[in-house]
């Protein structure tokens, strides 16, 4: 293919990129002006199971005609355009989501921190991006992935205000010598994601702290949740029906978005659930009643908010009993045992969700027959507890790999029975446990016996048996420990 575009013109670059639509990565390689041997070698290398390179490199080299580099300027500096080749996926129940976070630029712990986002090298790389989306289907070779969309994207002003606050939070930790405390869940849209195969191999010294202190390598990224919003809003151009908490960007001049939402909730402190129900116009106590109260306090009438969708923030009503206990643990989506068996921790669905998710805890404490609002807190897991969760995850994965032990046992009354497994107990890990996700049980045991009537409530184990769908849960006593003291009084 003849390489013919104006490197100074974003529209020309986009139009040249649009020639990729309908092609696979194999097509891109085959059409390049290079030797047949190199083409075949490249296709073979990319399709190997252990391939770690990005398919984006193929677009850079074989379509746009430039070699991979680590320059701090944009890929097309004269046009101010950064090239990003990124996957999207179609869910089992329909719907489109970003396949991963979008890595933008490494965070330096050695060079002087760039105080102003708008004059930083990071801004050069996020201000205008050429997004090339391909459909990822893990059942076919990588080079067979189709390229479907090519879009020029700049974050809108309302997002840039929050991205700027995210940037300031990240660089403040770096300047304070606390890069080892950075977490992708600290921020809203712009995250600090880990880079490197594991913690031991990817730690480096911090310039701003004691000599012996090291921190994980990290990069600025747009969170996966933010990229899912961008995909649906700006690429697929679906109608945006989400309500916004932020009514005017001027509201962020004097305070952060995070403080704004906490203040909105805390303005109602001391009110009972019945008072809030009347004041906020809720008519029934449905399953979503408690989260609906929180959204109404935030000025949102539906049970979702645009900013929370972008930032992967989940509203969670916490109800504390009069004796100070908390009954409910917090669940994550059910796992697929066959996928879970082969996942690496930092590439797993659970890690991606747990490390980047934030919770808005809206805390109520029981007083007689009512619950009183104590206030709100934004929370995300810290790195130490994330490591504890990793230990629990690995132990469970090892059991799945070796074969889950399922044993049918009669109950104490002798009239019914249970199916026990050898997964760890909740008390075995301070942060997480695993237990059923489905409301009904379903098992297909090794002897051919089937327990339960609804196969949709089960998931296939690697050895072909089936057991009731399982989820990871954050322990209720762990969540209780994370709450600010004043919220538990």
From TrEMBL:
Pfam families: MutH. Transmembrane segments: none annotated. Residues 66-166 form the DNA mismatch repair MutH/Type II restriction enzyme Sau3AI domain. It comes from Halobacillus locisalis. This is Restriction endonuclease. InterPro entries: DNA_rep_MutH/RE_typeII_Sau3AI, DNA_rep_MutH/T2_RE_sf, Restrct_endonuc-II-like. One of its GO terms (molecular function) is hydrolase activity. CDD domains: Sau3AI_C, Sau3AI_N-like. Keywords: Endonuclease, Hydrolase, Nuclease. It comes from the Bacteria. Gene3D superfamilies: DNA mismatch repair MutH/Restriction endonuclease, type II. Coiled coil: none annotated. The keyword Transmembrane helix does not apply.
């Amino acid at each position: 293919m003849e390489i013919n575009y104006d490197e100074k013109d974003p529209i020309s670059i986009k139009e040249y990129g649009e020639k990729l639509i309908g092609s696979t990565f194999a097509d891109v390689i085959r059409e390049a002006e290079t030797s047949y041997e190199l083409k075949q070698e490249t296709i073979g290398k990319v399709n190997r199971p252990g391939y770690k390179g990005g398919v984006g490199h193929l677009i850079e080299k074989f379509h746009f005609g430039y070699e991979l580099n680590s320059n701090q300027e944009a890929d097309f500096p004269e046009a101010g355009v950064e090239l990003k080749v990124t996957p999207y996926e179609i869910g089992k129940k329909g719907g489109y989501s970003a396949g991963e976070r979008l890595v933008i630029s490494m965070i330096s712990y050695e060079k002087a921190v760039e105080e102003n986002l708008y004059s930083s090298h990071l801004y050069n790389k996020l201000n205008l991006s050429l997004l090339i989306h391909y459909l990822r289907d893990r059942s076919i070779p990588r080079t067979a992935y189709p390229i479907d969309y090519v879009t020029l994207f700049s974050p809108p002003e309302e997002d840039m205000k929050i991205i700027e606050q995210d940037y300031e939070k990240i660089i403040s930790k770096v300047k304070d010598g606390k890069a080892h405390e950075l977490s992708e869940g600290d921020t809203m849209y712009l995250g600090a994601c880990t880079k490197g195969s594991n913690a031991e191999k990817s730690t480096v010294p911090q310039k701003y702290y004691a000599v012996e202190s090291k921190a994980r390598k990290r990069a600025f990224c747009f969170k996966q949740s933010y990229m899912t919003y961008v995909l649906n809003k700006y690429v697929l151009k679906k109608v945006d029906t989400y309500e916004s908490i932020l009514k005017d960007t001027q509201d962020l001049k004097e305070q952060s978005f995070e403080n704004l939402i906490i203040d909105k909730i805390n303005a109602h402190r001391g009110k009972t659930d019945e008072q809030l129900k009347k004041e906020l116009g809720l008519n029934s106590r449905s399953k979503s009643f408690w989260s609906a109260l929180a959204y109404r306090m935030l000025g949102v009438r539906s049970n979702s908010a645009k900013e929370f969708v972008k930032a992967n923030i989940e509203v969670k009503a916490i109800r504390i009993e009069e004796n100070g206990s908390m009954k409910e643990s917090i669940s994550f989506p059910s796992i697929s045992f066959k996928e879970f068996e082969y996942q690496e921790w930092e590439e797993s669905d659970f890690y991606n969700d747990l490390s980047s998710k934030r919770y808005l805890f809206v805390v109520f404490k029981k007083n007689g027959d009512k619950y009183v609002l104590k206030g709100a807190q934004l929370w995300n897991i810290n790195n130490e507890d994330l490591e504890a969760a990793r230990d629990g995850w690995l132990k469970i994965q090892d059991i799945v790999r070796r074969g889950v032990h399922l044993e049918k046992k009669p109950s104490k009354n002798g009239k019914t029975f249970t199916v026990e497994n050898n997964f760890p107990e909740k008390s075995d890990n301070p942060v997480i446990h695993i237990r059923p996700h489905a409301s009904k049980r379903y098992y297909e045991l090794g002897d051919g016996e089937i327990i339960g009537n609804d196969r949709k409530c089960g998931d296939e184990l690697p050895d072909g048996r089936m057991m009731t769908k399982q989820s990871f849960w954050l322990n209720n006593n762990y969540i209780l420990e994370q709450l600010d003291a004043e919220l538990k009084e």
